Amino acid sequence: MPAQSEYNPVTNSRLAPRIRARLVALYGVGIREATELQVYAALSSALREELMRRWRHTRRRHDRAGVRRVYYFSVEFLMGRNLNNTVTNLGIEEEVRAFLADAGLDYDRLRVLEHDPALGNGGLGRLAACFLDSMATIGLAGFGYGIRYDYGIFTQGVGEEGQQTESPSEWLKYRNGWEIGRDDVRYTVPFGGRLSDGGRWIEDWRVVAQAYDTPIPGDGGETVNYLRLWSATAPEPFDLDLFNAGEFERAVAAQVDAKNISRVLYPDDSTERGRELRLRQQYFFVSASLQDIIASEIALGHPVTDLDRHVAIQLNDTHPALAVPELMRLLLDEHGVEWE
After folding, report:
1. pLDDT in tens, 227-270
2. How far apart are CA 132 and CA 125, in angstroms?
3. DSSP state of 228
């Protein structure tokens, strides 16, 4: 792990100007006239900048050391609120509280404005989050892969007669200032189709996996890894010819089918279509993640035949089990590795 002196301490003299500058740049207001939501967004943006600086140092340190990278595959991640986690792990709660109090604001009111990313259902998701936090804390190159659900798990309520009610969890209702949309990290995931005479898979249709990264700081902030989540879209936004012909629903059918893959965590599996959607979700995220890992290793100059020397993959429960045959398919069909 690096010495503490690698990073300048996060003090109010460094943080305050960044927050004020963001309030002006984003909203055209000063801190005294800004809303609590605007101050939360500016504070989050300033802290993310600090994390990104440390992320870059972490990546360069791992590359120089030639470390083996650990990838944690899970359909669930219950990370908690990013603002609170970042402030706690950087050890700057006292500084943040003092700065906000000087502006007449309460940190406890600000931090609950953030929608908790409801990307898990319980112990499985919290286990995944703890592993990512722990790996960053002890300096391991450990990263998470999962799905960026539009709504995650449902929001639970209680009806008039005491029964449970369920409504969508709108955690992305406001802009998520903690994630980084990776427009340059996109992979196509194949579905349907048949086997050729030579045993190669010829798919019927494809879905595009778009990456979104969230920085994960360890305790003390010395190492910053990331959680990479995949959002599903169709290769084309819609069929223009069908749309112009008045077939509006058919024109966007492919986009709707693709988006359904990353719509919610654990879609109801009491129907055949629900079970198929779950299977599509599981295959979608393991295929995109494996393609990303292989591409990263090639970029580092590592041949795919040496993958086991540089990479370790942990599957959280049985949901990512399709990673095993999919990795074999990618190595055999896409990268020309011999079976032997």
Report:
1. 999 999 999 888 788 888 888 888 888 889 999 999 999 999 99
2. 11
3. E
- Residue 107: partners with Cβ closer than 8 Å, 6 or more residues away: 93, 96, 97, 100, 101
DSSP 332: I
CB environment 17-54: b (16+ within 10 A), e (fewer): ebbbebbeeebeeebeebeeebbbbbbbbbbbebbeeb
Q: How far apart are CA 45 and CA 26, in angstroms?
A: 10
Would you state the pLDDT for residue 327? 98
The type of residue at 117 is P
Contacts of 79 (CB under 8 A, 6+ apart): 85, 117, 119, 129, 132, 214, 216, 227
Predicted confidence (pLDDT) per residue in 188-213, tens digit? 999 999 999 888 899 999 999 999 99
Q: What percent of the chain has pLDDT over 70?
A: 97
Per-residue HEC secondary structure of 64-86 comes to HHCCCEEEEECCCECCCCHHHHH
Length of the chain: 340
Which residues touch 209 (CB under 8 Å, ≥6 apart)?
186, 187, 188, 189, 230, 231, 232, 284, 285, 287, 288
Distance CA 77, CA 119 (A): 5
DSSP of 8-75: ----HHHHHHHHHHHHHHHHS--TTTS-HHHHHHHHHHHHHHHHHHHHHHHHHHHHHHTPPEEEEE-S
Strand partners, 230: 147, 211
**The pLDDT of residue 3 is above 80:** no
Residue (of 274, 176, 301) closest to 231 by Cα position:
176
Burial of 332 (0-12, 13-18, 19+ CB in 10 A): middle
Task: Calculate the alpha carbon distances from 277 to 14, 263, 336 in Å.
Answer: 48, 10, 30
pLDDT of residue 330 exceeding 80, the answer is yes
Backbone angles phi, psi at 315, to 5 degrees: -100, 120
